[in-house]
Design goal:
The protein has two domains: about 100 residues, Immunoglobulin-like (Sandwich), CATH 2.60.40.2990; about 120 residues, Lipocalin, CATH 2.40.128. It contains two helices and 19 strands.
């Protein structure tokens, strides 16, 4: 065989061998990386106690919600890995149990428990600090301390019966929810303004649309449970596109609102002229 042909064949075989070696090495590295970063959970359940910082009489519909979250990104957002909830009664300490079925943990991630007590959509207690957990040890039970949120502990819960005199926090618009961490409010004053229609009372309204502040007014007929918002005047801040679109939906909702009603835990529901639901709000504590 001529020298050039033997050289070409040798180079071809060598290249193929090197390529095979590189492929095997890459696959091995991928397997090792996968095995080193992901592990099946070593714990099947998480148990713990909820300690309330104040002894208060809970209203009906109170629920405890406990969440397991990934806190690896220190600035958030924190991904919820698992959640459990239970109806509760007034008591100083509560026990909880969270069953972990097919949950997979990252070895280099950090995890913690957080909890809250809600009445409907109204927040009553919350854990100011998250409780770290170990995914390799069954160090149960954990203790989670909850603090009362902005209420007078000497008073019982009073369900709102009027729109005016409250700051309302928007929880849902057009059955589409709202963006996490966005804050939309409607603050209706208690001061009455004269109107040409004696069946309505006019109140000034201010609030936050998620990016911009706004001001407007609302006409309310409490006997008929009807209300109408005037076109809001808003600031012009630069907003993220998603927040800006949500703010447009909020303004649209205000303009379509025609009537309202409350449920038994004080949530405010707004409806359009055809009686269709368009928004849900809760009183800000």
């Amino acid at each position: 065989m001529p020298m050039k042909r033997r050289l070409f064949v040798g180079m071809t075989i060598g290249t193929a061998a090197l390529t095979s070696l590189l492929v095997v090495s890459v696959v091995a590295m991928a397997i090792n990386t996968t095995n080193s970063s992901i592990t099946e959970t070593k714990i099947s359940t998480i148990k713990g106690n909820i300690i309330l910082n104040q002894d208060v009489e809970m209203p009906a519909h109170a629920h405890l919600i406990v969440q397991l979250v990934d806190i690896s990104q220190k600035e958030g957002p924190f991904q919820v890995i698992s959640e459990t909830s239970m109806a509760i009664n007034t008591q100083k300490a509560l026990d909880f149990k969270m069953v972990l079925n097919t949950i997979t943990f990252e070895k280099d991630h950090d995890y913690a428990l957080q909890a809250r007590i809600v009445v409907g959509d109204i927040l009553w207690f919350i854990s100011d600090e998250r409780t770290p957990i170990s995914i390799f040890e069954t160090a149960n039970p954990y203790k989670i301390y909850l603090n009362l949120v902005g209420q007078n502990i000497s008073s019982k819960w009073n369900v709102p019966t009027s729109v005016n005199g409250h700051e309302w926090q928007v929880e849902d618009i057009f059955n589409a929810g709202i963006i996490d961490s966005s804050h939309i409010t409607i603050n209706v004053t208690n001061e009455k303004n004269l109107t040409s229609d004696p069946t309505f009372v006019k109140y000034n309204v201010t609030g936050y649309g998620g990016c911009n502040r706004y001001s407007t007014s609302v006409m309310i007929n409490e006997d008929e449970k009807t209300l109408k918002f005037a076109t809001p005047a808003m600031t012009f801040m630069a907003c993220a596109e998603a927040i800006s679109q949500q703010e447009d939906r909020f303004t649209e909702m205000l303009m379509k609102t025609n009537s309202y009603n409350f449920d038994d835990i004080g949530r405010l529901f707004l409806k359009d002229s055809k009686g269709n639901y368009i928004a849900r709000l809760i009183p800000h504590l």
